[in-house]
């Protein structure tokens, strides 16, 4: 059995790339990595520590063009005789993995949260409200692993890196401009998230949320009503129709916990809820609850985090 | 310009999720079906805006049985010109996408829009598969879409930011939040939807690549531990020593 893991290395190696290689190793058998992007040889060789036997790099692909990436992955899967192809279920996988599935006529499982049992793979369905088991009916399967489902495990040693020509073809999508807000921690990858809702009464009161987030090294998020009335930018909206996140810690202040909000955050490992209303439905989904006024509790929590950091 | 909008049905966002037949089937008892929000709020409404600005037609397509005609009429009430139903059970994303790709190719659409995912299966698969089936560009997770003649630009999500991209038509675009604002159908739209054409088309011969064999509910969450609002040191201590997340 042979596994091929696709990772993107345009901006070095992201954590979810290491997770995908670790996952590939857990399947047993050979693990080959195919990558597009500009990471240098030593960086790519370090993937051996996570279980890669070999890294194949196609440097002709410099953008995130899903058509080109799909061509390279198909060529690499054929060159290595892969029976399983792994992606990390990020924005690139969502664009490229379906194309690879059609090219290889191989069943695609999106949002996997566990290693396969035979041909069956466990996934999140109904926006995290339930699990499903997907059976793949083809000899080759493609699995897109939900980020933060497995932690990277280093242990091996560096592996070989070879240049690979995956016949990527021309890019069909031309990048005109890239905007990345400086300094902010991107929400989908954040391990710690501090979020607030209408209970904060107005956009001018977000200072204390940002302070707590900055003290923790966390990203900030918000509920849908807050994004809809323009208190916070849309990309901060977590929930069923916004961003779905799976951080290690999610702190929610002044959010009642409507089912649509929970759908976006119920993959969080630990949930802390601050609400004045002891009957708020969010407490049922929380690990730690504080019935109290966010305007008092949040600054107090920030202070406690400061003290903790000073003492540790 | 000819625009095709793919719609899927999904349970209302407040539906209770449960399973029957030994956890092999979604329990539809008491479930209200809606048009998948990403398909309706963003893909369909943006298609209508483009038509209003530049002319053309908007067609809706779904793969489903006669039971889905109700949600097709709901979508028509928002404003499309016509609907197409490929008459088959949508067994998996590949089956569904190949049906739509086939129809889109043979009917010469310039733009095919989908929602970024359905809220029941969350697969984000159908759009990319349609694009591959049509051999056209796929623009995934777009929060903005502008058409300029035979090309178009879109804002797409990337790690920690947004990228503006340009591409030629035809193309398939998956719509995310921000692309348009939800529209509530008015009475005139609802009346007009009753008489708009709904063409039922026989499916192409395609085999599914995957199938859902069973489902499970997540384990019940353990009791929420209540912390004294005066004592945030205790919370920090618990997050560090018990939960081990900071």
Series of secondary-structure elements of chain A, N-terminal to C-terminal = EHEHEHEHEEEEEEEHEHEHEEH
Q: How many distinct beta strands of chain A?
A: 15
- As a percent range, the share of strand residues of chain A is 25-35%
Computed Rg of chain A: 21 Å
The biggest beta sheet of chain A is recorded as: 7 strands, parallel
Tally of strands of chain B: 15
Task: Name the CATH superfamily assignment of the largest domain in chain A.
Answer: HUPs
Please report the first level of CATH classification, the CATH class of the largest domain in chain A: Alpha Beta
Number of helical stretches of at least 4 residues of chain A: 8
Helix content of chain A: 25-40%
Q: What class would the helix/strand composition of chain A place it in?
A: alpha/beta
Name of the CATH homologous superfamily of chain B: HUPs
The average pLDDT of chain A is 94
Largest sheet of chain B: 9 strands, mixed
Low-confidence parts of chain A lasting 5 or more residues at pLDDT below 50?
Answer: none
Class derived from helix and strand content of chain B:
alpha/beta
Quote the beta fraction of chain B: 25-35%
What is the CATH architecture annotation of the largest domain in chain A? 3-Layer(aba) Sandwich
Largest interface (C-beta under 8 Å) = A-B, 96 and 84 residues
């Amino acid at each position: 059995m042979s596994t091929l893991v696709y990772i993107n290395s345009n901006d070095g190696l992201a954590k979810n790339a290491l997770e995908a290689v670790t996952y590939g190793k857990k399947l047993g058998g050979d693990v080959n990595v195919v990558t597009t992007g500009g990471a240098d040889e030593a960086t790519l060789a370090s993937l051996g520590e996570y279980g890669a036997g070999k890294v194949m790099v196609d440097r002709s692909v410099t953008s995130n063009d899903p058509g080109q990436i799909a061509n390279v992955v198909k060529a690499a899967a054929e060159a290595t005789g892969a029976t399983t192809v792994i992606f990390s279920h990020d924005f690139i996988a969502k664009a490229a993995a379906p194309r690879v599935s059609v090219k290889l006529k191989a069943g695609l499982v999106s949002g996997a949260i566990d290693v396969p049992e035979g041909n069956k793979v466990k996934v999140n369905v109904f926006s995290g409200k339930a699990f499903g088991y997907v059976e793949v009916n083809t000899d080759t399967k493609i699995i897109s692993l939900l980020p933060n489902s497995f932690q990277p495990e280093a242990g091996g040693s560096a592996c070989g890196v070879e240049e690979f020509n995956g016949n990527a073809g021309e890019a069909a999508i031309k990048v005109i401009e890239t905007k990345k807000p400086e300094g902010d921690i991107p929400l989908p990858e954040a391990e710690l998230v501090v979020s607030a809702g209408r209970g904060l009464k107005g956009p001018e009161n977000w200072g204390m949320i940002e302070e707590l987030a900055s003290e923790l090294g966390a990203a900030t998020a918000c509920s849908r009503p807050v994004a809809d009335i323009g208190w916070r930018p849309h990309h901060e909206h977590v929930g069923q129709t916004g961003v779905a996140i799976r951080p290690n810690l999610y702190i929610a202040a002044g959010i009642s916990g409507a089912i649509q909000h929970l759908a976006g955050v119920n993959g969080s490992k630990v949930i802390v809820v601050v609400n004045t209303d002891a009957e708020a439905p969010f407490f049922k989904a929380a690990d730690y609850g504080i019935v109290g006024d966010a305007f008092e509790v949040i600054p107090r929590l920030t202070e406690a985090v400061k003290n903790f950091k000073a003492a540790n | 310009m000819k625009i095709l909008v793919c719609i899927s049905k999904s349970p209302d966002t407040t539906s209770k999720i449960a399973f029957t037949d030994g956890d092999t089937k979604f329990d539809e008892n008491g479930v209200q079906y809606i048009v998948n929000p990403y398909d309706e709020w963003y893909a369909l409404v943006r298609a209508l805006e483009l038509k209003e600005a530049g002319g053309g037609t908007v067609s809706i397509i779904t793969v489903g049985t006669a039971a889905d005609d109700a949600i097709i009429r709901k979508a028509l009430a928002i404003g499309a010109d016509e609907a197409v139903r490929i008459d088959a059970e949508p067994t998996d994303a590949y089956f569904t996408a190949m049906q739509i790709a086939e129809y889109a190719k043979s009917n010469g659409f310039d733009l095919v829009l989908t929602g970024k995912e359905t809220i029941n299966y969350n697969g984000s698969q159908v759009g990319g598969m349609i694009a591959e089936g049509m051999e056209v560009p796929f623009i995934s997770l777009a929060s903005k879409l502008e058409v300029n003649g035979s090309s178009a630009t879109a804002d797409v999500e990337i790690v920690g930011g947004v990228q503006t991209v340009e591409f030629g038509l035809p193309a398939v675009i998956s719509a995310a939040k921000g692309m348009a604002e939800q529209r509530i159908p008015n009475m005139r739209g609802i009346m007009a939807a009753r008489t708009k054409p709904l063409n039922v088309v026989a499916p192409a011969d395609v085999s599914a690549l995957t199938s859902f064999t069973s489902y499970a509910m997540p384990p019940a969450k353990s009791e929420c531990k209540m912390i004294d609002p005066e004592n945030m040191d205790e919370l920090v201590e618990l997050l560090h020593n018990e939960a081990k997340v900071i």
